[in-house]
């Protein structure tokens, strides 16, 4: 089973349509395909071939897109490296993936030492050799590999095939719709599935991507007001910062803007309501690297009465709870569908990612009577205190509801008495006594769930997608 | 590889959305799924089971949809019978398909005598037995079987799988876009791929279908004006009649209306321009039963400078010209993609429908420098009359069976009303009245296939191999 080469087909079918824009420059699908073919010729000249595994380390830029699209034409497997990782972490991934080459953005060259390193400037400066793209791509072709930690803390390289990305793009379209005029604002890292999936949708839909080199609340608010974009992917924190700018500068949002997909953990309902007041529809999603982005999505119409839910599966997907006998029973979330990775590479290559066709996510959740998914907690963050299960997200939600709290993070601390106890870190909007916050918690949750310590901090540890890293909180203890 | 059961999944994901409307009655996806489950229980009670092959003969109505959706739940293969066929033609298809049951709309009961006949009224009156739907459908499951003639004049039963229909729906969405508010006006026969594919899109997109029991230009114009529908499938003749009504009654078309897909042969550019004056975008398509509807589509923006073209392939599809070395070279049109039938049933079950993965259409065409497809000549001199395919060989076979006829040749003649109509030329063995021959035809083939004129001639034009040259018949008109 094959697909027509997505880049060639898009250039053929909608060559004059916008493919990418960055600052003041635009590329149509025809133009970006020409650039991609040129880069494919340059990469070929440098020794990169079909089925070569290349690691790529870059910051968001058109150049990064050109290199990736060139690799797509050549037929490479792309290991997407996170530019915020430390040298040792990068070394682990390059080593584990047995990457044949490491393609590195010049601004990041200090981060990697590798005999097979090729700087972006060298690619650009290389004369391309004649290159003929493949007409078809196999569905099972590995397009990208992304490392994710999971329960063990040892990052595993997740394979994402052409079919994974295609299913993901189509399922999302069947959920929220698509139109030839759509333009997706991309401020998420391109090396994460949140950003990379925007590029895949671009090729599959024939959709424009408006690329920013990083998230900046004011620049994003300006895009929303200008009506230059129709969609955007956010996490709770970035949404809140944009809402603050919109409020502070008394800005409005163009009616051309349609939908935000919110990933990386639950977005407070207060944010969704504030967004709605600007006409912005925010869809809470649940997904992961192993599912090439969203698997379930909550519609705005359901947001108010299904607070905390991640919604229902997309059309091609199924979700069930391991061992659940009835609605409300908690257990591990299992996922089935064509978006699920066929497996890992490197030292985890032998590990089965699916059992009987179902991905075991390691996350705990339940389905309510109507089939809405509630993710109770990431299993790896579960705190077990005196035999009771304590879910950090639940405590954070309570803290976040306090007007003085902007951000909250909770993790487990060792305790002689209880095994583990929850402790909290908060970032404030305005001054408040920690005792007041603890009293506030006591009023709303069982005493064993109330943080035993609460520290006020400047920032919380987050990854490049702004997802809270609870494990790093533990290192602060 | 599987899909979640489309009916169950739609009821689960968008149960409150409009699924079907007919006259003043509406059904949501939840409601229509309940009806479908009830019908599945009734059909089960009557002996219909998973993998049972049922032929269905009906006129467009909600009841017809209920029976089909019931069959989908049960897991039947549905042989879609054309209600305009003559008794002998229906018998052939029922026999060739080895249908286990024939489900017949009561208003058509005179058309079929079969021991395994079950009238719709009997289905409706049967008490359902408990029924549990399958959770998943295999991609290679045969959903529908439609008979189509070819060069030989013997209709062949074409299998259309779940993957064929899914690919077709998704490819169309990637071309024209989809939105949760879309409603497709269905006036095409549900037993044809043109109408049936609207139901498949409804389930896959979660899209509403506005069903009419037949095409009526005034009723359709009223729907367009009322803004109750966003899409519609047409053929040249129906489009022209609607335009006449819009003009005569000085009507306007709601801005909510988006797109018409035009199949069944080329639509005159004048119609497309007249439609544009009402804000209607008409997309010329090329497709066939073997490709589960459209394979190529011409965008309105290209209509003026690509007069006569059927456009470019949809995203997942490829088209090439057999033996062509450069743009403009004519040859047989070959098609590749997941929408292509895996093959035939019945007496043609052994015939390869694909060679090296490419469907040989029998149509002749060329691709221009920009890759636009031009269909020069239809397979076996196909006559398209009011959107129905009429195969000359099939009519010639009937004429040749008459003892007075030695040779017969049929071709299409232009018709203001139908686009084209069949006309016949015969060489006689012995004297006979032309009226007698026409009455003879009427007994055996659908009335739209009966020649509108019949001329007695001395000889028919043949090539050196004695093959009938139907194109030369046209010159005699």
TrEMBL record, chains A, B:
Keywords: ATP-binding, Ligase, Menaquinone biosynthesis, Nucleotide-binding. It comes from the Bacteria. The keyword Nucleotide-binding applies. It catalyses: 2-succinylbenzoate + ATP + CoA = 2-succinylbenzoyl-CoA + AMP + diphosphate. One of its GO terms (biological process) is menaquinone biosynthetic process. It holds the Pfam family AMP-binding. Its EC number is 6.2.1.26. GO terms for molecular function: ATP binding; o-succinylbenzoate-CoA ligase activity. Residues 9-344 form the AMP-dependent synthetase/ligase domain. Pathway: Quinol/quinone metabolism; menaquinone biosynthesis; Quinol/quinone metabolism; 1,4-dihydroxy-2-naphthoate biosynthesis; 1,4-dihydroxy-2-naphthoate from chorismate: step 5/7. Residues 394-467 form the AMP-binding enzyme C-terminal domain. HAMAP family: MenE (MF_00731). Converts 2-succinylbenzoate (OSB) to 2-succinylbenzoyl-CoA (OSB-CoA). Belongs to the ATP-dependent AMP-binding enzyme family. MenE subfamily. This is 2-succinylbenzoate--CoA ligase. It comes from Planococcus salinus.
